[in-house]
Amino acid sequence: MVGIFVDKQTVHYYILGGIIMYFVGIDISKFKHDCFITTESGEFVINSFSIKNDNDGFQELLSVLKSLDSSQEIRIGFEATAHYALNLKLFLEKAHYSFMEFNPVLLAKFNKSQTLRRTKTDAIDCTSIARWLMTVEYKPCSVGFYHTYSLKSLTRLRDTLVKQRSFYIVKITNVLDHIFPEFKPFFKNRFSKTALYLLENYGTAEKMARMNSASYENLRKISRGKFSMQKFLKLKDLASNTVGESNEIFVSQLNSLMNLYKQSCIEVNSLEQQIISLIEEINPHTLSIPGIGPLSAAVIYAEYGDLSKFDSPSQMLSFAGLEPGYYQSGTSEHGGHMVKRGSSHLRFTLMNLCIPLIQYNMVFAEYYAKKRNEGKTHRVACSHVIKKLVRVIFTLEKNDIDFDPAKLR
């Protein structure tokens, strides 16, 4: 028997002899959030309503949640939408409510399974989220997620700045192709510390051609003796006979780009120090694996977050988009390429770990050699190495132990 009475917007349910579980679906957006609350029986408690993404809106949501039967469980869910839900998540955590985030792709597939209609509104989405919560295992975010989020923000910002720094390098190369095309090939197409010093302090071929013995002494100190007198004379000769043409516009571009590049290097170094300090304080077991440095460990820790939400290494692979596709229908059956869904930042970091792992870790080096002997190509063998790495990380964190090659099978 169900008794219902209406108090303003809130409908309270009392189930005699039974247990109510509330499901709260929230559709996140930049300026507002749409909410819908239902029970496990599918009856709505509150029809879809909107709250502003500010303190007044959050307090309105809190009032609604407090109006529900406090003796019953409340499950809250919303899609992972970058930073738009951060303030709401912090608010819910401080108010002692659990919540679950999930991949928007899952909701999209759920909606397709429910109807063939293509109508999509925020009100429909929040309703779908609440009903989707009823069909899956509830895995709330861990308490104190903000520290993980902070580390994720730092690692992703560093990644952005590293890409920006690389962009400046490309632009500097383009300008050098105009004013001194022989410069970068002379340094084997690398911007070493010596090369950057020359560009920052001399810039043009004309100035490099006029360098003297004092200039050489500075270059020798910067290169720790690697920049010989013969190289110095060779560079002066190239500068004197360059086919490049220097003018004020190109020189101005080079100076601006060098300043931007230098500033980006300073910012990247500053972020790396913060990241290293945080990850060493957390000290995850991933750090104990030879071949994994603090920056890579920070990305893995930040992107995966609380590993208790994963039941198996295969789920961790799926989260990173590293699982292979698979198709089977009737007599047709075949595998496919990696699905490449999930965190691209995490996937990129894991794949780039393959080389240091097989260089500095005997366990992974032997595993890589085994796969190569089986006829696997380099890239396929690397994907197997990373799958093994994910299995190792899962085992270390679940069992709260450090890496020990003697215990690996």
What does this structure look like?
With 409 residues, this protein is an alpha/beta fold. 55% of the residues lie in helices and 15% in strands. It contains 17 helices and 9 strands. The protein has helices spanning 55-66, 86-94, 104-114, 122-133, 145-179, 183-186, 193-201, 205-209, 213-222, 229-240, 248-282, 294-304, 313-320, 344-352, 354-360, 362-373, 378-399; strands at 2-7, 10-15, 21-28, 32-39, 44-52, 73-79, 100-102, 324-329, 332-338. The strands form 3 sheets. The protein has a 5-stranded mixed sheet with strand order 5-4-3-6-7. β8 and β9 (332-338) form a beta hairpin. α5 (145-179) crosses α12, α13 (313-320) packs across α17 (378-399) and α16 (362-373) runs antiparallel to α17. The longest helix has 35 residues, at 145-179. It starts with a strand and ends in a 10-residue tail after the last helix. 26% of the residues are buried.
Question: Can you tag this structure with a few keywords?
Answer:
two-stranded antiparallel sheet; 15% strand; 17 helices
SSE pattern, N- to C-terminal: EEEEEHEHEHHHHHHHHHHHEEHHHH
Helix content: 40-55%
Strand order of the largest sheet: 5-4-3-6-7
How many distinct beta strands?
9
Which structural category fits the helices and strands?
A: alpha/beta
Strand content: 5-15%
Q: Tell me the number of helical segments per DSSP (H or I, 4 or more residues long).
A: 17
Gyration radius, to the nearest Å?
29 Å
CA(first)-CA(last) distance: 57 Å
Mean pLDDT across every amino acid position: 85
Largest sheet: 5 strands, mixed
Which stretches of 5+ consecutive residues score pLDDT under 50? Answer: 1-18
Please tell me what the overall shape is: elongated
